Amino acid sequence: MQAQHNIHATDAQKVHIARLLLQANLAYSESNSPASLVQRIKARHECRGYLDEVLAQEPGNAVALGLLGRVEMDDGALEKAHTLFTDSLSQDPAQPQQFANLGYWAIRSERPALAEQYFIQALEMDRQSAAAFCGVAHAKRLQGQFDVAYLHYRKLLETGLEWPSIYSGMLTCAEHLDVQRADTKLARDAILLLRHNGLPHQEIGRFVAAIIRQQYDLENPNAQVALDAASEDELLILALEKTLMPDPTVEELATLLRRAIIAEVAQTVELRDELQPLALALAVYADRTGYALTAEDDEERLVSAINDSICAQLALGEEQDGMIGSLIISAMYGAMFHQEFAVQLGRWNLVDWPVALQPVMAASYYNRASEEAIKQNFDEKAGELCLEKTDVPQAWPSWTKLAYRSETSLKAMMATELGMNTDQLPDTLRIMVCGAQSGQRAMELAHYLKDVEVIAVDESLANIAKATRLADEMGIGNIVFWPWSIAQRFVADDHKVHWIEIGRLPSAKMTDVSLAALVSSATGNGAVVHMHTAVNEQTDGDKQIRRLIAQHNLKPTRTALRQLRRMVLTNRQDPMWQSLVSETDFYGLGGCRDRWFCEQDTAQLKELMSLVSNEVEWKLVKAQDTDGHSLAAKPVQKQIQAEALGSEVQSLMGQGLSVYFQRRR
Questions:
Q1: What's the domain of life for this entry (predicted)?
Q2: At what angle do helices 164-174 and 184-195 cross, to 10 degrees?
Q3: Residue 238: its H or E element
Q4: Would you say residue 646 has pLDDT above 70?
């Protein structure tokens, strides 16, 4: 009887363990859901509790050991995770899931080749493992095999999986593909990516441009482009609406299509319904470039006449319907906010316009009005009052969505990635981003790190206004955007920050700004400074244009910027200009203005590098190369010190490293 009772007890125990494992898996799934970080940490804690209970009853439970390894890996304890995965496999070697887990552990440990081996082992056991197949794609991408990884991501999407990491990985790979011929599958992929609203479409501008270049045979001077065919091209319209394409032939295509539309309007005195989607897309695209697209004199005259007509229609109180075609044409050539009729448009709210027209009205009028109101809060606005409306600087870079990241905490990153002790840090950490530009990186830090408040600093009032508006629209409340004057006052009042990130360097115009002095004053014991050792915008073409600007005393007007761009595009086969023409910044007037009239001051970086080279005060805690791979810290530290002592041979400037320094005291 006693023996029989023990058997029943064991069966009951197995049922209880199975129930606990089910609850643990549900909790783990919740810990990786889109819920808030607090909820996810709570779910992870619950999962750990269930697993501890299982392992107390059955220490060798392979499933529990493996899942606990995932929890440890999510918490950044990579060594513990590896031990648990291998312990699980020692209990039960036939577990494809544990090999997949080891693959993701190897990815976190920056060993993508080893990760690929583990994922392949998992697939040999289970050909249907989507997690392992996706892992192979990630591993291939991290090894620079972008074409192979891209095909893996495509296959996963074809099976119906909708994981954010798949879309994000495919998007990353797409920008590295060399598109040499028209390919309907690639065009279909590009449409799929552009339709997905959660992706940072600004990152696939080159990929989409290459497909369009091949599709329309744009390198052939005799190629014919039919306006009606272009107006029905979903890829072209989506690309114009959602990204910036850094390709001179695609810019010529956009200019040609715009001219064809206005030529037809000049003949027929109306904008056909069939052409409206393309015209609207071209208007949004022109705004994104800061109206860099060149127009011939006859186009300018016709647009001027159309603007005069809109003024008359508004003065007579005409209804919206009678002006929509004219407004679309006007918006293809200039911002409505800059026109004489701008004030009268204010009688309508954005939602009062037809849905198809709203993106153009927002970009060309309402967003600019909002940003102008934000600028009024800063003393720096006085510097714009003497400028022509069209010469007021435009925010740059132009971006649409934040890049995909998993929500985490800065303290967790400092502990796991930099090996720092974070016990003494407060619950909310303060980050300062110097040279935040139009704010994408700063907002990603504020959005994905849930224990931070971010101060983003830039010298461009246009950048500050646009970023402030976008942060408000996205509901990101833990960030402010300031000019340097306010940031300096903040630091002078003895406020400290826990993390400083250096983006675009101040220009030589910012004579009262010293990055090194600000870093020295704003940081205390344990604070981190993250910077890059390369300075962009140093092509031969940039240097030649700066010489021309100095020689002819040019001002950063729209006319001057367009003329300089036209000179470069006309002579783009000249080796001097080829590198410049391949830069994304070149395709927006805001980017050109920054490169040529607000050149980054490399002396600021040298002074800052000299500051952190002092090993008594600062410690190099991490260094990464351009591919994101970690480097041994000691050799990099020696180079920094040698450079501080005047050795140009070992200079890090221009090497493109990402370096993290921690203040010792």
A1: Bacteria
A2: 130
A3: helix 234-242
A4: no
| Residue 442, pLDDT above cutoff 50 | yes
Biggest alpha carbon–alpha carbon distance for the chain: 105
Average the pLDDT over 435-449 and give the result.
96
* 312/331 Cα distance (integer angstroms): 17
Q: Label residue 324 exposed, middle or buried (CB < 10 Å: 0-12, 13-18, 19+).
A: middle
Q: How confident is the model at residue 405 (pLDDT cuts 50, 70, 90)?
A: confident
- What pLDDT is attached to residue 654? 62
Residue 544 scores a pLDDT above 90: yes
What secondary structure, in 3-state letters, does 371-436 show? HHHHHCCCHHHHHHCCCCHHHCCCCCCCCCCCCCCCCECHHHHHHHCCCCCCCCCCCCEEEEEECC
Q: Which residues contact 138 (CB under 8 A, 6 or more apart)?
A: 107, 112, 115, 149, 165, 169
- The count of C-alpha atoms lying within 13 angstroms of the C-alpha of 224, restricted to the half-sphere facing its C-beta, is 3
Task: State the number of CA atoms in the 13 A half-sphere of 300 facing the CB.
Answer: 6
pLDDT reported for residue 648: 60
Which residues, including other chains, have CB under 8 Å from residue 174's CB and lie 6 or more apart? 150, 189, 190, 193, 204, 207
pLDDT digits (tens, 9 = 90+) for 126-154: 999 999 999 999 999 999 999 999 999 99
Contact present, 303 and 276 (Cβ < 8 Å): no
N residues, the chain: 665
Tell me how far apart the alpha carbons of residues 14 and 187 are, in angstroms, rounded to a whole number.
Answer: 53
Task: List beta partners, residue 482.
Answer: 457
Closest to 239 in 3D by CA, of 273, 274, 199, 195: 195
Distance separating alpha carbons of residues 622 and 612, to the nearest angstrom: 13
Q: How far apart are CA 296 and CA 396, in angstroms?
A: 26
Put the strands of the sheet holding 658-663 in their side by side order.
Answer: 479-482, 452-457, 429-434, 497-502, 523-532, 658-663, 618-624
